[in-house]
Amino acid sequence: MAFPVFCSRIKRPHPPFFVAIEREIEHCLLDTQQSNLGAFIILREAEDSDKQIDKGTNSELVEKEDNLDSEEKQLLSNLKVKIASHHPKHLKVHTLAYSKDSGTAQHKRSNKYLKQLCEQFTAVTKHQVLENLRYQGQIREEPERLLEELSHHAALCLENCRFFCGRQNLLDNIFHHIRQNNDKTHTALILYGPPGCGKTAVMCKLSEQVQAVLGQDTVVVIRLLGTSQLSSAIHSLLRDICLQVCLAFDLPPPPNQINQARSDLVLFLSNLLLTVSHCSTQTLVLFLDSVERLFPYDGAHRFYWLPKDCPPKVHIIISISTTEHDILKALQHTVPEAEAYFEVGPLSSEEGEEMLEILFAADRRQLSPAQQAYLWHNFPSGGQPLLFKLAFHEARKWASYTSPSELVIASTAQEAMHHLCEGLEKSHGTVLVAHALGYIASSRNGLSDMELKDILSLDDDVLSEIHHCHFPSSKSVLRLPPLHWAQLRSDMGECLAERKADGFTLLGFAHRQFVEMVQNRYLSKQDQIKRHFLLADFFKGTWSWGMKKPLVLPNFSRTLNADRKVAPQPLWFSDTVANRRKLSELPFHLLGAGRIEELKQDVLGNMNWISCKTIASGIQSVVDDFAMCTEQIDCPELHLVQNTLLLLKPAVSSIDSLEGKRLSILYTEVLARLLFLMPSYPDVIGKLCQQCVSWFSVCPYPVLIPLSGFLQPPGGPLNTTLTGFLKGVTAMALSSDYRLLVAGSQDGSVLVWNMEIIEMLHTLPGHSAEVRCVKVFGKGTCAVSAAMDHSLRIWNLTSGRAQFVIQDTHLEEQPSNCLHVDERHMIVYSSSDTKVNAWHLETAELIFQISGEATDAWMCSAVCSPRLMIMTMSEGGTLSLWNSITGELQSRRQLLGLQEEISTAGVLIQKQGKMIVGFSGGSLSMISSDGNSLLEKLPGRVGFVVASEDESILAAGFGEHVRVFLADSKGFHRLLAADLEHEGMVHTAVISPDNSIIVTGSETASIQVWSLTDQGLRTDRLDGMGAPATLLALYDCTLVSASSSAPYLKVWNLIYDQQQKTQAPVPETGCTALSHGGNYVYFTQPEERHKVIIWDTTEGAVCDTLDTSAQVRCLEIAEQNQLLFTGLVSGTVLIFPLNSRQDVACIPPPESQKPVNDIAVNKREKQLAIAYDDLVLVLDIIPADPCPVITRPTYTFYTQIPGSLVSSVAVLADYRVLYGMTSGDLFLYDCPQSAVFPLEAHRSQISCLESSHGEQWALSRSEDSLQHLWDLEFCQQEHEMHYYKPASLLKGIRCACFSKDDKYLYTGALDQSITVWDVASGALLAAQCIYTTASRMVPTADGFVATTQLGYIIHERFHCPQNASPQYNPLQNITATCTVKSRKKEGGNLSKQQYNQRSSSGNLIRTNKLSQICSVI
Predict the structure, then answer these.
(1) Count of alpha carbons within 13 angstroms of residue 899, beta-carbon side
(2) So what's the pLDDT on residue 105?
(3) Backbone angles phi, psi at 777, to 5 degrees
């Protein structure tokens, strides 16, 4: 808010004017309750006001005091006092020095005064702008953005309704259709017609009158698509519509993770419309005008986002141009009902005349009778509203005396637009018109008024034409005279339209026909490149900040080097406000101008750009930029970076807010994925990696900095992530041609994807509870789903609509959990634990129902269509056979030997008419009408049974193993000699159609690929699922995995591009140890656990292999002593010298010969501890030449806790041993004193113990993700840290290590994250997701090195500034929960001397546990 500059000696204006100014100031500045952040006042005071000014003084700035009467002085003085007292902080006083100078001296003094005043004004204005930007950065963006969007569309609606006339029959028919369908399910309503027919005006008129038809409480949502940036992209359109509807109906807004994912928004909108229909008495009407103007990205023109059916009290009305044939055809495919389409035809001659009369009346113009007759004569049969508007635009220029013989009216819209341009060229010059319109047509989203002035000021051709007759008035500053553009814009009239984009009001063409005309008339290929070139210069800021651009003036034969005074284009206007105009336009124009190297350097290969645009517009906008560029640029590096962004998109999108510069997740993901490729691609990828490292070095908060690549690089197996569900995926099925994928979720939704293009095809809402199973039939045209809401829905996958909804009324019974479709007999069967229902596919009529006995519930059932048979087996072992056509019981018999076990899994072999059923006791039985026979007795509970597509191969999962069988004439026999083994429980498996591979998924989120043609050789391991893999689907070389614990699906490519495939530095490992800062890795492989491989990571090769006499249970390294300790299942510990080829030393097992559970070496490498089930050995490592010597145990003690075994051990230099038990108990045993100190127990098995380098601290961690940090000096707990991901079923810590200075604690969790803790305070400092599990960690000078289950080496530096921001949240980049409980330090700690005295006397520091009886041998 700026007010006039007041002078105490200025002559008083006329009283009314002065009073008006005073009232305005009092109203806007003095009476407001706001803080007036944007207000400032400059008061000018004259120095030495009592002095008389000489009569010869010629001053325009200071006048005689005699010219002011006393009343005027008092009024002005009172006003200044009010201002100063109300807003002293916003007051700036400028003092004008008194002077008697005249002439040149006075002129110079006045110039100096004005310059100082302008500088002061500029400084204050900049300060106020920055303050307001800071304030805007603190408020939530969504409501403000939505309000601005609604205001924009509301204003356009009012403008379009101003000149609306006629169309009453069309309006009545549409409202009649809406009223008829208001209380029932119906389709969307479509308005169609050619461009310029007035569809937008009809839509606006409908939105204006709909409340009068349906009730004043009707909620109206209207979007004139393409008129704003947010209404041009399908993602932002759906996001804002969802938010507006939620606010209108007082419903919770969409969560942030839904706002980030397009497919999630589609499902949210469908469910939202159902909620509005069921829970509200109000009607919702949604208008979407000109859907063809949506950006074609993200399948917007395939209308997968459009609800196929509108529930009662919800109406969707769409308009579309008939010239967009492909888009119209796609819409007709989505909404095939002919009665839903209404054509918007031309205006009749009477309606056209009425429209012209309204336009002339609004413009206060009137034609002469002769002119009016001529105008009506040119439209005898009416026409399109656009043609009438253009005719008005031409006729309004006619003078009253213009003869009809001199008048020209175009008969078509194209002709009228060319006439308009000819008139503009005649009035303003061809160059100015051609270039101004060309810039608007060449822009991505339009140009603002100020931008156009700057751009035209940079255009040498425009300025040369303007100054072809006279030299510019200034030699230092050269601008387009503002009047030139103002007059041109005024003469353009309604051909230009305002639209909102990038936070600005931009100018664009009102109709697409204008764009096409400008492109054809003014934009040849060469001209288009020139327009893009200058636009790129402008948005890049090439000629800003005082840079002078030369201009050659041919008529004057000289070059003018002048400042064009164009606006600068920084990437950030402030800490929180990005330059969205630059972010949006620059890549588009660099590409259009062919400036590819600049595009790579300044945009696509610039992490500052990528991070800024991610913050300002979301990661999807960055992906869209790369997609736009890679379509035209053949550059492998850009494709790799694009794929990297696609891989990291789910992680970045899941974060609630990327505030400020807290973008460590983005920089971490980019760096950890691209470091693999840095040596091969130095130009773009190499520079991106260097920029990431530079950003990390100045990061203002704690962060882990990747020093090596450890996340899956682009070109790997992970193709994409499919989102859209709100909860875990519980059912999944592929069509017979593998073209469609149908999946159901715990949230009750069913989604359909087109797997040819990996794009969502339909959202199928309707179920209100978890979907239990889905089946696809009809060659991919139909599907059936069953859910926990006791409903069965049959879907048409072509239209995306439910054909039938079958609701079971017996809600007390178990819902259906299995489906079978018999297409030959047109029957769908649904079965549960108590009944089997048969429904007709075409009528949904119940054919029959089979019910089991209440006292003998069914364990499994199957439908054998070829044999017209239904098989059911009860808990009591009764096998019943039913006719699958009639439901009649055919036979019943008692199966032998199955009463002791419970059925857990089964599969039907249709060709043989047999069921293969797995049981809780491990039995795998073949059941047929002839009875049952034991196929195999497996070692554990059968978790699943699957068969190949041709039913020739069978796989059964039990525990951590899968056994594979091959069909023969007698049944099945084992195909592979050895079982397939996972690290965790196996949940599911799938066999390829050609029977060449089997893919298995496990509890540990690991997916493994095995060759069935090469004796079960594992060919690949896919980590990154992020949740237990419970569902798999396989076709060709594409694998789809899903989890009941995750709301997404992963799509994998099992065949890599070998040129881009990045091998893991280390083959997959079992037991692992590290030395020399990660340069050497010692590990066993799952298939050869009796061998220890030594891997040189710098060379990427095996440097040695050590054979052991039995399988290795644990590994430990004494790096300084160059010793490798291997604990074996036989109980033996082998000691391998690493610096020589001497004989291997052996520590024999105790007499019980139990396996070694754990090995520990203290930090000084002087003692070794070996843990067995109930026995711990402590041995000295004695230095010797050439190799240290280890003799008999120095101390040995037994543990005596019934039913609990030693699970982990750590040894200290003073012969104290910390050991944890499988029961969660934890003890510190002092060997010299033979004293045991029980510590606070964990709730589950101790999984690991780690002591600090100074041996003051120790960490104990258990399988329930609980960590305790102990002060070993005083034998007391300092901190209890609990970190976990709520969505992960995997909990607990796998490995940990202290930093070299014992300040930090690094932990690797089973939930695939790495955390950093402050040892002194117990506070969490940083958390990072690595998409796999770290198996072993060792500290480095400034961080740590870790190995992962994938075989990658994680080498990271920990950057921790001394003063981090109080607002820093270590969980900002990860969805997890963390709690820390620290010990209250009341009364201080015991002194070390007191502690030693109490220990030597045998007294326990903590007495909450009984002492163990330990025997020293």
Answers:
(1) 7
(2) 65
(3) -145, -175
The conformation of residue 1412, written as its DSSP 8-state character, comes to P
CB neighbourhood size of 137 (10 A): 14
Instruction: Name the residue with tokens 């997740």.
Output: 665
Which single residue is written with the structure tokens 């920029």? 691
Question: Is the predicted pLDDT of residue 1335 greater than 60, yes or no?
Answer: yes
Q: Answer whether 565's CB lies under 8 Å from 482's CB.
A: no
Q: What tokens appear for 758 in the block?
A: 């990996």
List phi, psi (to 5°) of 998.
Answer: -130, 140
pLDDT value at 958 more than 90: yes
C-alpha pair distances (Å), 1180 with each of 280, 704, 1167, 1177, 1195: 78, 37, 5, 10, 9
Please state the pTM of the whole predicted model.
0.78
- Residue 793, SS3? strand
Mean pLDDT estimate for the chain: 84
Tokens encoding 707: 């020093």
- The packing angle between helices 607-617 and 687-697, to 10°, is 70
Q: How many helices (H) and strands (E) does the chain have?
A: 28, 74
Contacts (Cβ under 8 Å, ≥6 apart) of 76: 6, 8, 12, 68
Sign of CA dihedral 1143, 1144, 1150, 1153: negative
Average pLDDT over residues 701-712: 90
- Checking if the pLDDT of 1265 tops 50, the result is yes
CA 605 – CA 607 distance, rounded (Å): 7
Nearest alpha carbon to residue 287 among 410, 367, 189: 189
Q: How far apart are CA 1136 and CA 1242, in angstroms?
A: 35
What lies within 8 Å, CB to CB, of 200 at 6+ separation is 160, 224, 289, 290, 319
Residue of 107 and 210 predicted with greater confidence = 210
Query: Per-residue pLDDT for 1137 more than 80?
Result: yes
- Given a cut of 70, is residue 1158 above it in pLDDT? yes
Per the CB < 8 A criterion, the answer to whether 239 and 254 are in contact is yes
Backbone angles phi, psi at 833, to 5 degrees: -70, -15
Q: Work out the pLDDT band at 1263, boundaries 50, 70, 90.
A: confident
3-state SS of 269-286 is HHHHHHHHHHHCCCCEEE
> Which residue shows structure tokens 């003084």?
57
Separation between Cα atoms, residue 1289 and residue 350, nearest integer Å: 72
DSSP-based three-state secondary structure for 552: strand
What's the mean pLDDT in 337-348?
A: 90
| Distance, first Cα to last Cα, the chain | 89
Q: Is the Cβ–Cβ distance between 41 and 83 less than 8 Å?
A: yes
pLDDT: which is higher, 677 or 1292: 677
Show the CA angle centred on residue 434, arms to residues 430 and 438, nearest 5°: 175
Q: Are 1208 and 1158 in contact (CB under 8 A)?
A: yes
Q: Of all residues in the chain, what percent carry a pLDDT higher than 90?
A: 37
Q: Is the pLDDT of residue 1254 over 50?
A: yes
Burial 609-641 (b: 16+ CB within 10 A, else e): bbbbbbbbbbbbbbbbbbeebbeebebbbbbbb
Q: Per residue in 869-881, pLDDT tens?
A: 888 888 777 888 8
Alpha-carbon Rg for the chain in angstroms = 40
- d(CA 545, CA 563) in angstroms, rounded, equals 9
Predicted confidence at residue 1066, as pLDDT, reads 67
Task: Give the C-alpha separation, 669 to 641, whole Å.
Answer: 11
Three-state SS across 1138-1158?
CCCCCCCEEECCCCCCCCCCE
Range 847-860 burial, b when 16+ CB lie within 10 A, else e:
bbebebeeeeebbb
The Cα–Cα gap between 787 and 772 comes to 5
3-state percent helix, strand, coil for the chain, nearest multiple of 5: 30, 30, 40
Amino acid at 926: M
Residue 33 pLDDT: 55
Instruction: Report the run of H or E that residue 577 belongs to, with start and end.
Output: none
pLDDT score for 1289 = 67
